[in-house]
Write a structure and sequence with these properties.
alpha/beta; 28% helix; seven-stranded mixed sheet; 9 strands; Rossmann fold; two-stranded antiparallel ribbon; 6 helices
Length: 227
């Protein structure tokens, strides 16, 4: 719809001014992915509002505020041909953006642990033409070794620590983004950028404070987190 296209462009310009979007590739990705197609039907009119909204699941899942996607993806420097793992498919919107950024020669694998949310993401990705995203129903904290190593890994839920399997499946060089810290802390979590160099050496930096729902699974909250 023309109305949504106009709102999408307004959002792009807003995020360029705010500094959330920095690269031409991110501009084009956001322009191409119709966020309204990834919203729960009750909230479609708010697709370009700067806040998260509920999506089908167990009552905790959301589609993140739209500015969070460039905040996550810009530091990962995704380029044509990259292999990307997303932990927490949610609505599928993030996977669609990643697919645009890595192009037809890249690979996007997205894992969702909640069956209802997985079905929602599958429907949204198929309906918008992103059928080549490898969508997996399973424990994202364990990663997806079948397609490893990855150039970039994006974790969209708060971790007690960055799961060891994800670090192991990250290529060298490679980058990983994850919220780390208390899942319901009033102070939120630290958004951590972990970088592995060509020799396998690892460094971390905290970019900002964020607030995400808790990661579930073996290395998530309620599991057996191990560093």
């Amino acid at each position: 719809m023309a109305e949504f296209s106009e709102r999408r462009e307004q959002m792009v310009q807003r995020y360029l001014r705010a500094g959330y979007i920095k690269s031409d590739s991110m501009v084009e990705a956001v322009r191409r992915v119709p966020r309204e197609e990834f919203m729960d039907s009750a909230y479609v009119d708010y697709a370009y509002a700067d806040q998260p909204f509920p999506i089908p699941g167990d009552g905790k899942q959301t589609i993140s505020a739209p500015y969070m996607y460039p905040i996550f993806y810009e530091p990962l420097n995704l380029i044509e041909g990259n292999r990307v793992l997303e932990v927490g498919a949610g609505s599928g919107y993030g996977a669609a953006l990643a697919r645009e950024l890595v192009g037809s020669t890249g690979l996007v694998v997205s894992i969702e642990i909640n069956e209802t949310t997985f079905g929602f993401a599958r429907e949204n990705l198929d309906g918008t033409g992103y059928r080549d995203v490898v969508l997996v129903h399973g424990d994202g904290s364990l990663g997806y070794p079948e397609e490893a190593p990855y150039d970039a890994i994006c974790v969209t839920a708060a971790c007690p620590v960055i799961p060891r399997p994800l670090i192991e499946q990250l290529g060298a060089p490679g980058k990983l983004m994850a919220p780390v810290g208390g899942s319901y802390s009033i102070y939120g979590q630290d958004l951590v950028l972990l970088e592995k160099d060509a020799d396998g050496e690892i460094g971390e930096q905290i970019l900002m404070k964020v607030s995400y729902v808790p990661l579930t699974g073996e290395y998530g909250y309620g599991g057996r987190p191990r560093g």
